[in-house]
Amino acid sequence: RKTQRLLMTGAAGTIGQQIREGLADYAKTVRLSDVADLGEPGAHEEIVTCDLTDADAVRETVKGCDAILHFGGISTENRADLIHPVNIDGTYHLYEAARKEGARRILFASSNHVIGFHSRETRLTASSPIRPDSNYGVSKAYGEALASMYWDKYGIETLILRIGSCFPEPKDRRMMATWMSSADMLRLIGVMLEVPRLGCPIVYGVSDNEESWWDNSETAYLGWKPRDSSARFAHLFADDPAQDPDDPEVIYQGGKFAKAGHFED
Ligand code: NAI
Ligand code: 15L
After folding, report:
1. Is the CB of 14 inside a 6 Å radius of any atom of ligand 2?
2. CATH fold of 3-258, please?
3. pTM, two decimal places
4. pLDDT, tens digit, for every residue of 251-265?
5. 230 CB under 6 A from ligand 2?
6. Any idea where the domains of the chain sit in the sequence?
7. I need a surface site. Which of 76, 146, 220, 255 has the fewest CB within 10 A?
8. What long-range pairs does 194-198 form, CB within 8 A, spacing at least 24?
């Protein structure tokens, strides 16, 4: 059965801008929410301004939605007191609203920074221990734990998506390994909405790149296979200087997020 009303939080962001149009294929109505401007709604769209730190507003936004793509939040490293109200409290508001309003399926936009302090020689699966590389990564680990609890306790299904780097093009050499195309993201959203039983799997959100640190074989039951590859962007970095093998940015999967306190003086 086609999703009747699909909510996307954080819809004004980098990923929202890339996938907004494609969401029309998956639901009768797409409700887009953010604190930032979302422009005019398309024929199948509804636009709701909603601050995730406001529990009542979040509940109102979730009302009437059968599935949610939770992308809203602080998306880079910062002071903990700036991240927590949105990524921790806001995500809690979202799950509570889903429970109370009857939304049964969620995609949680987690991040590779939940595991960012693993070295690049380590191949990770869904069962690998977390190793957050930043305040940001820790806040996403909270969201993953919350999703797991809402599945076990309330039967709300979540696809926990540890996104690598979802941008139109990789921005540096590291992203040749972590890049995820928006088309692969959209196909995964289709799977997440349509698979008969989702459960609460952890999936690494990455395209079929030549360099790869992540193994999604434990969640092969979903039947999602990325089709794109960063290989076509290799020329962008061909003339970059050699990398220092002792630089934390090169050692760790999280790249610059794994540099201690890089966000403050
Ligand atoms: P972004 O920063 O461009 O978009 C996030 C959106 O959340 C923004 O439009 C912002 O206005 C909104 N937001 C921030 N605070 C809010 C609040 N208090 N209430 C309501 N909305 C608020 O991030 P991007 O790149 O689009 O990422 C989307 C999600 O995916 C984020 O949760 C991010 O952590 C996660 N992610 C993204 C990756 C990427 O490669 N783009 C990689 C890993 C995770
Ligand atoms: C993330 O989690 C960030 O939201 C995004 O801005 C990128 O930096 C990405 O990870 C990455 O690791 O490249």
Report:
1. no
2. Rossmann fold (3.40.50)
3. 0.98
4. 999 999 998 675 655
5. no
6. 3-258
7. 220
8. 195/222, 195/223, 197/157, 198/105, 198/157, 198/158, 198/159, 198/222
